[in-house]
Amino acid sequence: MKRVVYVDHVPVLSGAELALCSLLSRLDRSRWQPAVILSAAGPLEERLRKVGIPVEILPMPAMLLGRSPLRRGAFLNPLRDAGGLAYVARLASRLRNRADLIHANSLRACVLAGAAAALAGLPDVWQIHSVVAPPMIPPQASRFLRFLAGRLPSQVIFNSRAAAACFNLPRERVSVVSPGVDGELFAPAEHPSRPAVRVGMIARLAPLKGQHVFIEAAQRLAEAHPQMEFLIAGTPLFGEEDYAQQLRRQAENGPHGDRIRFLGFVEDVPGLMRDLDVVVHASTLPEAFGQVIVEAMLSGRPVVATAIGGPAEIIEDGVTGRLVPPSDAGALAAGIAAVTSDQTAAATMARRARVLALDRFDIGRTTREVEAVYEKALAA
Fold it and tell me: What is the C-alpha end-to-end distance of the chain, expressed in Å?
């Protein structure tokens, strides 16, 4: 049995961290012995401990915990600052004699755990959940990460072709493995018997997620579609509280603010999916993936998403969902209206989407693919 230590620098339940939880839930425990190192206590630690995953908190210097993951210094400082180097040394000390393989699950963890694994003489796997290119990440930070990716990790897992395209790595060191989702947990259910049509977004509150575009689209739709309700689930996670307040003001100041509801953090996402008629993914910048898109597809709910980055790889427009241009509230409103106006076509599209999602994104399949990458890293 091989010991795999997973390193993540944030303790919150963001997309990459939820993907980690799903992976660990299906890891073959007869072959792999997992443990996790986090920078601080928080919801991620609590969720992992509940399912029996050992977690160690290795406190990270405040400098390394910059609130925004896109801030340039967050990437450039770790290996240039004395505090960052000291953290790498402490992490390497923890890893020696306690791990056979390191799996870094966030960009900052890739830098820190990659350096620590090299210091400890251990193979490591990077998992990239982001588009590492401007405007998502500053140019200097992008170059820095690409430079390290060419030298530190044994293998690199990308969650989409859009993410992999940012790096020029040898093919034998690259795997594209999408985050897996449990098709039994996210399963179709009968639509609730109610007159309202509920359209929802499920994402952390952040400008790149596009809730402001969704609210503008909702205000356009509300007048012509009095039966529509609009739900926004999520909270700010990385210093985006001002944006969250801006969204509430935007909704309240609109003509139909009472039809837009903010749900905050929702623990029971499968239950919320069952209560929605349409799921929206409104990113304004190219994200590497769209886990909520797959969850909606498996739940049998039609999706309207922006046609950039990973979502454009997941959805075939008009066949398994609707794609619209980013930052275009008019196009988003039209896409939602098109889906809700023809329920038969929407149901057919949703059925096709579930078949596709079960084939490509089943958590059992994707976990086996990650385990195959572990074998390659250990063999090398």
Answer: 17
User: Helix, strand, or coil here: 56?
Assistant: strand
- Sign, Cα dihedral of 361, 365, 369, 374: positive
Instruction: Quote the CA–CA distance of 177 and 198 in Å, as a whole number.
Output: 32
In tens, the pLDDT along 222-248 reads 989 999 999 999 999 888 999 999 999
| Residue 126: strand pairing partners | 104, 156
Give Cα 353 distance to the centre of its chain.
19
Do residues 166 and 148 touch, judged by C-beta distance below 8 A?
Answer: no
Going from the N-terminus, what domains does the chain have, and what CATH number goes with each? 2-180+363-379 (3.40.50.2000), 197-361 (3.40.50.2000)
Within the chain, residue ranges assigned H as helices are 15-26, 43-50, 72-76, 82-95, 107-120, 139-149, 161-164, 211-224, 241-253, 269-274, 291-298, 311-314, 329-341, 343-361, 363-379
How confident is the model at residue 79, as a pLDDT? Answer: 65
267-293 as b/e: b if 16+ CB within 10 A: eebbebbbebbbbbbbbbbbbbbbbbb
pLDDT digits (tens, 9 = 90+) for 4-16: 999 998 888 999 9
- CA distances to 114, 212, 243, 251, 252 from 246, rounded to whole Å, are 38, 9, 5, 9, 10
- How many C-beta atoms surround the C-beta of residue 365 within 10 A? 15
Q: Which amino acid is at 240?
A: E
Chain segment 155-202, per-residue pLDDT in tens: 999 999 999 999 999 999 999 999 999 999 999 988 777 889 999 999
Determine contact, residues 308/286, Cβ cutoff 8 Å: yes
Q: Is 204 helix (H, G, I), strand (E, B) or coil?
A: coil
Q: Give me 165's structure tokens.
A: 């395209």
Residue 227: DSSP 8-state: T
Contact 90, 96 (CB under 8 A): no
- Local structure of residue 263 (DSSP, 8 states): E
Q: Is 109 helix (H, G, I), strand (E, B) or coil?
A: helix
